[in-house]
Amino acid sequence: MAGSSFGTILRVTTFGESHGAAIGAVLDGFPAGMPLDEADIQAYLDRRKPGRSPIATKRAESDAVEILSGVFEGQTEGTPIAMLIRNHDQHSGDYRNLMDCFRPGHADYGYAVKYGIRDYRGGGRSSGRETAARVAAGAVAEKFLKSLGIDFLCYVSAIGPVKVHAQPGDPDFDRSLILSTPTAMPQAESNEEALRYLSGCMAERDSSGGEITLRIHGVPAGIGDPVMNKLDARLAAAMMSIGAVKDVAVGDGAAVSEARGSNNNDAFLPDGGNGIHTASNHAGGILGGISDGSDILMRLSVKPTPSIARPQQTVDIAGQPRELVITGRHDPVIVPRAVVVAETMAALVLMDSMMMNMSAKAEAIRRFYGRV
Amino acid sequence: MAGSSFGTILRVTTFGESHGAAIGAVLDGFPAGMPLDEADIQAYLDRRKPGRSPIATKRAESDAVEILSGVFEGQTEGTPIAMLIRNHDQHSGDYRNLMDCFRPGHADYGYAVKYGIRDYRGGGRSSGRETAARVAAGAVAEKFLKSLGIDFLCYVSAIGPVKVHAQPGDPDFDRSLILSTPTAMPQAESNEEALRYLSGCMAERDSSGGEITLRIHGVPAGIGDPVMNKLDARLAAAMMSIGAVKDVAVGDGAAVSEARGSNNNDAFLPDGGNGIHTASNHAGGILGGISDGSDILMRLSVKPTPSIARPQQTVDIAGQPRELVITGRHDPVIVPRAVVVAETMAALVLMDSMMMNMSAKAEAIRRFYGRV
Amino acid sequence: MAGSSFGTILRVTTFGESHGAAIGAVLDGFPAGMPLDEADIQAYLDRRKPGRSPIATKRAESDAVEILSGVFEGQTEGTPIAMLIRNHDQHSGDYRNLMDCFRPGHADYGYAVKYGIRDYRGGGRSSGRETAARVAAGAVAEKFLKSLGIDFLCYVSAIGPVKVHAQPGDPDFDRSLILSTPTAMPQAESNEEALRYLSGCMAERDSSGGEITLRIHGVPAGIGDPVMNKLDARLAAAMMSIGAVKDVAVGDGAAVSEARGSNNNDAFLPDGGNGIHTASNHAGGILGGISDGSDILMRLSVKPTPSIARPQQTVDIAGQPRELVITGRHDPVIVPRAVVVAETMAALVLMDSMMMNMSAKAEAIRRFYGRV
Amino acid sequence: MAGSSFGTILRVTTFGESHGAAIGAVLDGFPAGMPLDEADIQAYLDRRKPGRSPIATKRAESDAVEILSGVFEGQTEGTPIAMLIRNHDQHSGDYRNLMDCFRPGHADYGYAVKYGIRDYRGGGRSSGRETAARVAAGAVAEKFLKSLGIDFLCYVSAIGPVKVHAQPGDPDFDRSLILSTPTAMPQAESNEEALRYLSGCMAERDSSGGEITLRIHGVPAGIGDPVMNKLDARLAAAMMSIGAVKDVAVGDGAAVSEARGSNNNDAFLPDGGNGIHTASNHAGGILGGISDGSDILMRLSVKPTPSIARPQQTVDIAGQPRELVITGRHDPVIVPRAVVVAETMAALVLMDSMMMNMSAKAEAIRRFYGRV
Questions:
Q1: Largest Cα–Cα distance of chain B, in whole Å?
Q2: For an engineered disulfide with C304, which of A78, A116, B177, C209 has Cβ 3.0 to 4.6 Å away?
């Protein structure tokens, strides 16, 4: 439990450094009997793959995934699914000037203090590249959840000052743009405006932050566990564990601070069956840590890429001041590539919580074992 | 791991329902040899105790804690520290009208779907009362961390539209007010303004949200684990596991979305010794999930108390619409009582992470076992 | 995870020292909807209660259990079930002569080195008294498993050289004797012979070891998880965690060393339906860590009570030799009181594993969520 | 936590099926700063490698390990160490006749019931081949513990009726034979006698069980955690998780059942410094779950290889009886190859426990953080 595993029943462990031999993930506890092949996973990896647009790093990784275990005759077999992604296009030489100093905004200093030694090449373990391994594992979970009718809508809702104003359902909200625009924004106009903004940042050798919105539709009510393992607590941990995320909002998020109970409570209405639906969704689908059957709504704020080509003030390992200019290949904005990371991390949390939930009632256990 | 435990080496497990016999906590893994008695813990519990001001519930719980184990001759002995708080002033009759319907903004519906049965009295397990047990455990951790020179400054920074504008260090920032004002605001003016605002809310049978700010000073660099157990990921889980929290910000939080790398990066400066300090603290003291030695800065947004005395639209357990009027004793604002919960949860996370960190270097293990 | 918790989904945490205020257990993850009251648990606690026979310690604890949480209107509610047992009849003065030396055969020295301080009264946390808390938790699990038709037969099969030769089903195997004889032996003749043997031990101020046999009938096939969480690995940990146990055998146990494949393999036979049964049960019902539907068979060897009234050679905390005579009240044999501990620990392991097993198949998850 | 991970701070996760693409391990939590290369690990893997003697399967796997991550410039870097072993010499065709029936003595039936689908080729995940991945991880831990002066002596002490009578220190106990004899017996005479015995077994198309003895010297006192995570409980789980192990003995093991306190207690003697030593070692170095500084002594009983070339009675997946003849390449005795598995699993448990122990005292934490 030194930090590279996540989940309780469904548990992912990742490994690998940015410029080492490979990165990968082991997904343990995944149920047997789901069809799975590498193409299922590759489709997700391709969404975060570098080198695909003018606003993403030029590092040309194919990010081709190999399933090493856990799949037999095209189906998951209940055993750990190990997935391997070899590193190829490492320009480790680019990092030579970083070996004896600490990049501002990066984990370099903390790692150096903690471990004494440090893989300075591309950030080593602290690189965003690690998230490819999570995406591989989360893709497997998301495939399963989709088969239960659960839908993940995850997109960039802001880059710098440029916001997506359209909401899902609005005429100018085009879901297909998430996969086709370089910004992963679902609104054509915002995408163009954001690209212009990013051009400006790049011209100034600068980078931009942004925001990701996540909506999960079709989650049954009753998912999540009380107190410490609240569904939102686990989602918050998952999201905040993505390197550059600095804020996690559920439902109305920070706006609740100024709200009143009378307008923040979501009235319950009959849904015709024996469930409920809510007249509004300020809570983001989670009350007391348990899903209420409404859409789960989250927003993440992602900081600007800390690697910028401007001179920066830092300190070297001897404690001396130094002016640092970072070369190498870096994204002017991370947020479009982080979308699929957030989406698949959410899938891992949700599937784990849904598996946990199966034994919440004595009657359900009795029925499973044929004793009702 | 069904949800009531938190932590890896230092692990707290809480139990208890709002109107059951008792609530309590078992803190396992706490090191031996720290002086501890009930007064140490009681001081923290008194900070969240109900019934102390016009803006807190009238429920008159003494919240007297009894240490059942883990302390011998006034010192912790390394074994689980069990702490018990009996419930006394339950007016369970107040909840009779809730037994067959679901309160908006509460966990009632989720619990009902998940478990089939539900303790409707005061929210049962989902009650904020559960957090008293966490405070008891966290108080023990905070006592230890204080002995290492780590300082927790945690206060209410907003109630509804009323903000605390003073920053720590400013002349009108008076830390002593956190414990003495009903709002837990460290600025006399804000406290008064907030009380006026809350009077208005109460007159309208309404409630208000708010914001908590947390600053932890003196955390060594190098604390936190990579990837999934990032210090901020674990803090985010801890904070979001507090019932009404809907947003967790680290450092600049959501503002990073509009920031640029050039102004979001914190320049490193020599600190005279072999460490560093940062010229600014946009990151909130955590980079790549590892502390950098700067102050750890967080903000939490807390939703308005969902129990309000106005008629609300809901559904009963038969799926029929119902107009609900909640009686009973409820806080018009939760946020002042949540301050000590956030503070002590942070202490639990930090102490656990610091214990984990002791074995990060081979040399440290060798030294501990006398082999260097 | 400093050692006082056990289990994955169904998780027990115990607390308490032998001569502290109380001992207890928190059972988290137990499903909602099972009827439960204190009498269910008390019946199990009474089986290990001291003071009931000439061969058990005279310490007269009532071991009365109080349920503090997790039960509402007579039913489990899915939340942690906290159970409290106050300590009463402590003669802590008996231990005064032990405060500065280490009892042979006890954990005193290890605790002193590990923690620096040590509750010398009755062994503190290392006392067998701690197992009462496990029994309370395990009783809840066993009640549930019985409702699924699973039967636990657990008894003393040897005390010193006196063996129980009768097997379940034999005419002289009388199951009712387990609860009614002081030895917990299910054979009248063995019981009497063992009592004579123990009289001799006591006359010589000595103590005796013994053996416990456990048979669990009705466990479905397919329970247990691969590799590290094998059902037998988890049972072995549970059994070896009971203080005095020094050997754990599954099925034929140590005899397999001399066996051949041809006589150790259990042939599979059709059972008429689509299951199997085995022609023999050398494996003890577990193959590759997964149950095969046969009876689960285990044997535990329990060391003689280390507290004996003879002079013993030891060392004091200053490193000086000392001759020690232990007074106080001690069992001449532990094994009869350990039977219910082994039985209920096995119930905890089995129930947890059965809950884990519910999500092993994708189809089972789909069916649970109404998608098959 | 579906079964393929083990450990708390130092945590290994294995993956892979016998006839899949690869097997491997991820070792997380290993401290930074230990020199490590593939040769360190390969030496251990070679000890369990198949195809090396007449009494081991003819499967000719090179078992060449590749370190994928966690090592930088020849040193561990504190991040997960992923190790990969490709499968090569699979004769999956040998298993064609097993695809629709269950091998006696194997996990086939349990896996089929649990997962619905099953990799019938060489036992899939339940194959002993999985243990190569554990050996890779455990080799890393053992390398570190050796640097602390801890010595692992692990050997075959019996094959069928042939016992090793020599004890460590006896003139005819030759430790070097463990690595050089096919039986891993440290006594020349026993080795020859066992080989003759095994020839007989093979001639009769049969297999033999055996016994492994483990002695760990140099373990500091105070290692292990109370109650559930007792050092022996964790070791027992580790050992019983090795496929064919059916009995785990600590110290005198099952013999304690017939012992008396007066001869089972190990007297404490001064050791000259401020520690102790014991006059005997019936306890096997562990009292109350905590090490006492004596040698840790364990014995494991390993069942005969269930795959034998004689006709056996079984059932097919349609529930029909079938006579099965197993072809393929199988060891007539597993126990020599299991020695290094037991040894390295013990190293993993011990190192994890030693890392956990570092935070047992408040003073140790204060000293680590420079506050004593």
A1: 72
A2: C209
Task: Provide the 3-class DSSP secondary structure of residue C210.
Answer: strand
pLDDT, averaged across chain C: 93
Inter-chain touch B29–C1, beta carbons under 8 Å: yes
ipTM surpasses cut 0.85? yes
Of all residues in chain A, the one with the smallest CA distance to B311 is A262
Terminal Cα-to-Cα distance of chain A (whole angstroms): 39
**pTM higher than 0.80, yes or no?**
yes
Intra-chain end-to-end CA distance of chain D, in Å: 39
> Of all helices (H) and strands (E), which one includes residue A138?
helix A131-147
| pLDDT on residue C327 | 76
B246–A241 CB contact, under 8 Å: no
- What's the length of chain D? 372
| Distance, C-alpha A308 to centroid of its chain | 23
CB pairs under 8 A between A and D: 176
CA angle D363, D368, D371 (to 5 degrees): 65
pLDDT band at C372 (very low <50, low <70, confident <90, very high): low
For C53-64, write each residue's pLDDT tens digit.
Answer: 777 766 667 889
- Quick one: angle between helices A335-357 and A38-48, nearest 10? 140
pLDDT tens column, C253-312? 999 999 999 999 999 999 877 788 999 999 999 999 999 999 999 999 999 999 999 999
**Are C360 and A32 inside 8 Å of each other by CB?**
yes
Is residue B338 within 8 A of residue B244, CB to CB? The reply is yes
Average pLDDT, rounded, for chain B: 93
B82 with C17: Cβ contact below 8 A: no
User: CA-CA distance, A342 to A156, in Å (whole number)?
Assistant: 11
Residue D95 in this model has a pLDDT that exceeds 80: no
Identify how many contiguous H helices and E strands chain D contains and give both numbers: 9, 18
What residue ranges define each of the domains in chain A, with the CATH number in brackets? 5-368 (3.60.150.10)
Contacts of B49 (CB under 8 A, 6+ apart): B61, B62, B63
The predicted model gives B339-360 an average pLDDT of 98
Summarised one tens digit per residue, pLDDT across range A260-298 is 999 999 999 998 777 889 999 999 999 999 999 999 999
Contact C61, C48 (CB under 8 A): no
What pLDDT is recorded for position C98? 78
Residues with Cβ within 8 Å of A217's Cβ and at least 6 positions away in sequence, in order, are: A150, A151, A153, A295
C51 φ/ψ angles, rounded to the nearest 5 degrees: 80, 15
pLDDT tens digits for range A176-227: 999 999 999 999 999 999 999 999 999 999 999 999 999 999 999 999 999 9
Identify the three-state secondary structure at position D210: strand
Three-class secondary structure of residue B190 per DSSP: helix
Total residue length of chain C:
372
Report the C-alpha gap between B233 and B120 in whole angstroms. Answer: 32
Please give the C-alpha separations between residue B102 and each of B98, C17, C76, in angstroms, as whole numbers. Answer: 7, 42, 20
> Is B365 within 8 Å of D359 when comparing Cβ atoms?
no
Q: C347 CB near a chain D CB, below 8 Å?
A: no
Instruction: Give the type of residue at C9.
Output: I
Give the pLDDT band (50/70/90) at residue D275.
confident
CB C284 within 8 A of CB D246: yes
Structure-block tokens of residue B2: 């069904």
Least CB–CB distance from B292: residue in A5, A109, A226: A109
Nearest residue on chain C to A28, judged by CA atoms?
C226
pLDDT at D91 over 80: no
Nearest 10 degrees: CA dihedral of D24, D247, C226, A15?
-30
Encoded tokens for C6: 């056990």
Q: What are phi and psi of A224, to 5 degrees?
A: 115, 160
Q: What's the confidence (pLDDT) of residue A99? A: 82
C197 with C323: CB under 8 angstroms? no
